[in-house]
Amino acid sequence: MSPSQPTGTPRPGTRADRRRRTEERILAAARALFAESGYDRTTIRAVAAAANTDPGLVMRYFGAKEELFARATEAAPEAPVSGTPEEVAELLLASFADKLDTDATATLAMLRSMLTHPEAASDVRAAVSAQQRQAAAAMPGADADVRAGIIGAAILGVVVGRRLLRLDGLADAPTEEVVALLRPAVRGLVDGVRDPGPDVGAGEAGSAPGAAPASGSGGTKAAEGAEGDAEADSAAQS
């Protein structure tokens, strides 16, 4: 007597199992083509050919190209961001590391398409904004939303530079090295620590070369001496 199948799991060789395998094949082909060519240049016919199936079947399973794109680039939900500032920073960095380590095909498909396809741009913005709002709610300071936005933009920029632009140095750098280099900036932004910038009062302690004499007794004597020399010159000429 054969063991019973788990509820909801299609038996191998059934119609449901064959459909699942076909859908996975279509989605894999769609991700690869969207990543290589972007949204505008990818067609249902090209996806069907790459998946070794019929265009009508692609549309039957996924509808129009926009629905196929949404399914092909669908990402797992982000882990909630909360806790102390240090915990928030580490959660954001862990999410960032995951973006660098996971299969690049779906990410690249989204990044390449967002420049020309409004829906792709909207999906990227929604994903970044959702994490940004959670981080801002857990960060101290009145400008937490601005700092969270800077973190989101920095992370997105690094992902674009690594995945899409393939920037020298960044493209092949170990993930742990990239995360370690970004950690101080992320922690500083989460904490709200600001660099005070150059010390404006530093130049007042001592005069720079060529600076005008400081006011006071030394400056007054120098001025009086200059006036006396001018009077002597005037008397000699008269």
Automatic annotation (TrEMBL):
Checking InterPro entries in the record gives: Homeodomain-like_sf (IPR009057), HTH-type_TetR-like_transc_reg (IPR050109), HTH_TetR (IPR001647), Tet_transcr_reg_TetR-rel_C_sf (IPR036271), TetR_C_16 (IPR041678)
- A Pfam family hit: TetR_N
| Presence of the UniProt keyword Phosphoprotein in the record | no
Where DNA binds (residue ranges)? 43-62
Annotated region Disordered: where? 1-22, 193-238
Keyword terms of this UniProt record: DNA-binding
Q: What are the boundaries of the signal sequence?
A: none
Compositionally skewed regions (Low complexity) per UniProt: 201-225
Q: Which GO terms describe its molecular function?
A: DNA-binding transcription factor activity; transcription cis-regulatory region binding
Claim: DNA-binding is one of the keywords in the record = yes
Which stretches make up the HTH tetR-type domain?
Answer: 20-80
At the top level, the lineage of the source is Bacteria
Q: Could you tell me what this protein is called?
A: TetR family transcriptional regulator
Native source organism of the sequence: Streptomonospora mangrovi
Taxonomic lineage? Bacteria, Bacillati, Actinomycetota, Actinomycetes, Streptosporangiales
